[in-house]
Write a structure and sequence with these properties.
The chain is an alpha/beta fold and 314 residues long. The chain is 39% helix and 17% strand.
Length: 314
């Protein structure tokens, strides 16, 4: 029987002020239990917590689920800030601290991976595990995606051309997110929800900044150092890790999986499946193609004896 991927977003919207701006988030299954596990779901560019809508219900069977929209994305405010990665890191850290979240299991995607890993690296006593997919996990060279994808991202990082593509013509949202980045065709309702935060040119600055922050060939230096530190932390920490991957992905290829299996202790991997039959298609927004597989994999990993044994000694 074919699995139906739902377009509805049936969660109560909540807002909290972070550095004077409203951050939108959902907070499901919160209990009066200081030891309750909290799954923190972080998205990337140019999506929102809508990406997790079909995954949240399964995770609420295991604990509390908190999923914010990054500042400048989704229903969060768009203040006059630089939207650089280290700025997003400050906002996420402040958000987590304001909500006083502990016993965290991160579920991470795209730039949310770098942001969540940075917090976990600096606050390991507050994090019990990290699950990640199609994310910025280690510094890169020009070796990700297919040739067409690399060409597009080179253009994104070219002065004036990148601004023309992303800010004036909304190329990242209309093409990468809504067309190229998934196996299936998104519904009209899904497309409208994703497109809504970026209808004006002024709203697209956050989308433009992120591709220029990818740490390629050690530039930009500050993001390179952050992502390098994340990778080194993953290589030495015994914290439980779950890698979810597809074929063909954009940021995580089969050889990356092998490298991580050899380098990261206590890493479990789950192959979700073939993401695309098209020659040019790659799946990056895997939550739109494999939401229930992701939800079940995270739940199964969380319920393993090794993971539960770790929880009992924290």
């Amino acid at each position: 029987m074919k699995t139906v991927i739902k377009s509805d977003f049936p969660f109560e919207s909540k807002y909290v002020k972070v550095y004077g701006s409203k951050v939108h988030y959902i907070d499901e299954n919160r209990q009066n239990d200081a030891n309750q596990t909290t799954f923190v779901l972080l998205h990337g560019n140019p999506s929102s917590n809508y990406l997790w809508r079909n995954i949240v219900p399964e995770l609420t069977k295991q604990g509390r689920v908190v999923a914010p929209d990054l500042i400048g994305f989704g229903k969060s405010d768009k203040p006059e800030i630089d939207y650089k990665v280290l700025t997003h890191e400050r906002y996420i850290e402040k958000f987590i601290n304001i909500l006083e979240l502990d016993n965290i299991v991160f579920v991470l995607h795209d730039w949310g991976t770098a942001l969540g890993l940075a917090f976990a690296r600096k606050n390991e006593n507050r994090v019990t595990g990290v699950a990640f997919m199609e994310g910025v996990i280690k510094p890169k060279k020009w070796d990700f995606g297919k040739a067409r994808t690399r060409l597009i991202f080179r253009l994104f990082r070219t002065p004036f051309i990148g601004q023309w593509m992303i800010i004036k013509n909304n190329f990242f949202v209309e093409n990468i997110l809504l067309h190229m980045g998934t196996k299936r065709e998104l519904s009209t309702k899904e497309r409208e929800y994703y497109a809504a935060p970026f209808l004006s040119k002024n709203s697209r600055k956050p989308v433009y900044v992120f591709p220029n922050e990818i740490p390629i060939n050690k530039k930009p230096r500050d993001v390179y150092e952050m992502v390098k530190s994340n990778h080194e932390w993953l290589s030495r920490t015994s914290i439980p890790k779950l890698l979810l991957w597809v074929k063909p992905g954009v940021l995580i290829k089969p050889w990356h999986v092998i490298q991580m299996q050899e380098s990261y202790p206590n890493l479990h991997t789950e192959y979700l499946g073939i993401s695309s039959k098209g020659f040019l298609k790659e799946s990056h927004y895997v939550q739109e193609d494999f939401p229930y597989e992701i939800a079940q994999s995270v739940s199964k990993w969380f319920r393993t004896k090794d993971y539960q044994a770790r929880l009992n000694v924290i």
